Amino acid sequence: MSRNTLEKVLYDLSTSGTHKKKFSEDPNKFLSRYQLDDKERALIREYKVRELADLGVNTMLTWGFWLQAGKSNRDYLKIMKREEA
Protein backbone atom coordinates (compact mmCIF):
# COMPACT_ATOMS: atom_id res chain seq x y z
CA MET A 1 0.00 0.00 0.00
CA SER A 2 1.21 3.45 -0.80
CA ARG A 3 0.15 6.14 1.61
CA ASN A 4 1.43 8.79 -0.77
CA THR A 5 -0.76 7.56 -3.62
CA LEU A 6 -3.82 7.35 -1.37
CA GLU A 7 -3.17 10.90 -0.21
CA LYS A 8 -2.78 12.09 -3.80
CA VAL A 9 -6.16 10.60 -4.73
CA LEU A 10 -7.92 12.21 -1.77
CA TYR A 11 -6.22 15.54 -2.46
CA ASP A 12 -7.26 15.41 -6.11
CA LEU A 13 -10.86 14.60 -5.22
CA SER A 14 -11.02 17.31 -2.58
CA THR A 15 -9.56 20.10 -4.69
CA SER A 16 -10.82 19.52 -8.22
CA GLY A 17 -14.43 19.70 -9.31
CA THR A 18 -13.52 17.88 -12.50
CA HIS A 19 -11.96 14.99 -10.59
CA LYS A 20 -14.92 14.87 -8.19
CA LYS A 21 -17.34 14.69 -11.14
CA LYS A 22 -15.36 11.95 -12.89
CA PHE A 23 -15.17 9.96 -9.67
CA SER A 24 -18.92 10.23 -9.10
CA GLU A 25 -19.64 9.18 -12.70
CA ASP A 26 -17.34 6.14 -12.73
CA PRO A 27 -15.22 5.55 -9.61
CA ASN A 28 -13.39 2.56 -11.06
CA LYS A 29 -12.39 4.39 -14.23
CA PHE A 30 -11.25 7.43 -12.26
CA LEU A 31 -9.22 5.35 -9.80
CA SER A 32 -7.57 3.37 -12.62
CA ARG A 33 -5.28 6.35 -13.28
CA TYR A 34 -3.57 5.75 -9.92
CA GLN A 35 -1.38 2.84 -8.85
CA LEU A 36 -3.72 1.36 -6.26
CA ASP A 37 -4.46 -2.21 -5.35
CA ASP A 38 -8.00 -3.57 -5.09
CA LYS A 39 -8.20 -2.99 -1.33
CA GLU A 40 -7.12 0.64 -1.69
CA ARG A 41 -9.67 1.28 -4.44
CA ALA A 42 -12.39 -0.25 -2.27
CA LEU A 43 -11.44 1.92 0.71
CA ILE A 44 -11.84 5.02 -1.42
CA ARG A 45 -15.01 3.94 -3.23
CA GLU A 46 -16.64 3.02 0.09
CA TYR A 47 -15.43 6.14 1.96
CA LYS A 48 -13.66 4.05 4.61
CA VAL A 49 -11.98 7.06 6.18
CA ARG A 50 -11.13 5.35 9.49
CA GLU A 51 -9.33 2.55 7.66
CA LEU A 52 -7.50 5.07 5.47
CA ALA A 53 -6.36 6.95 8.58
CA ASP A 54 -5.25 3.66 10.14
CA LEU A 55 -2.98 3.22 7.11
CA GLY A 56 -1.37 6.58 7.89
CA VAL A 57 -3.32 8.78 5.48
CA ASN A 58 -3.44 12.36 6.72
CA THR A 59 -6.72 12.95 8.55
CA MET A 60 -7.13 16.42 7.07
CA LEU A 61 -7.29 14.68 3.68
CA THR A 62 -9.74 12.03 4.88
CA TRP A 63 -11.91 14.75 6.40
CA GLY A 64 -11.90 16.87 3.23
CA PHE A 65 -12.65 13.78 1.13
CA TRP A 66 -15.58 12.92 3.41
CA LEU A 67 -17.02 16.44 3.37
CA GLN A 68 -16.65 16.95 -0.40
CA ALA A 69 -18.94 13.95 -0.84
CA GLY A 70 -21.68 15.76 1.05
CA LYS A 71 -21.33 13.64 4.16
CA SER A 72 -21.78 15.13 7.62
CA ASN A 73 -19.03 16.28 9.92
CA ARG A 74 -20.87 14.60 12.81
CA ASP A 75 -20.78 11.20 11.08
CA TYR A 76 -17.09 11.67 10.25
CA LEU A 77 -16.27 12.29 13.90
CA LYS A 78 -18.25 9.24 15.00
CA ILE A 79 -16.42 7.06 12.51
CA MET A 80 -13.05 8.43 13.51
CA LYS A 81 -13.86 7.74 17.17
CA ARG A 82 -14.91 4.22 16.15
CA GLU A 83 -18.51 4.89 17.13
CA GLU A 84 -21.48 3.84 15.01
CA ALA A 85 -22.32 6.36 12.27
TrEMBL record:
Concerning SUPFAM superfamilies, the annotation shows: LigA subunit of an aromatic-ring-opening dioxygenase LigAB (SSF48076)
Q: Kindly indicate whether the keyword Secreted belongs to this entry.
A: no
Q: Which UniProt keywords apply?
A: Dioxygenase, Oxidoreductase
One Pfam entry for this protein is LigA
Q: Is Nucleotide-binding one of the keywords?
A: no
**InterPro entries reported in the protein's UniProt record:** LigA_sf, Xdiol_dOase_LigA
EC annotation? 1.13.11.8
MF terms (GO), sorted A to Z: protocatechuate 4,5-dioxygenase activity
Residue span, Extradiol ring-cleavage dioxygenase LigAB LigA subunit domain: 7-74
At the top level, the lineage of the source is Bacteria
Q: What is this protein called?
A: Protocatechuate 4,5-dioxygenase alpha chain
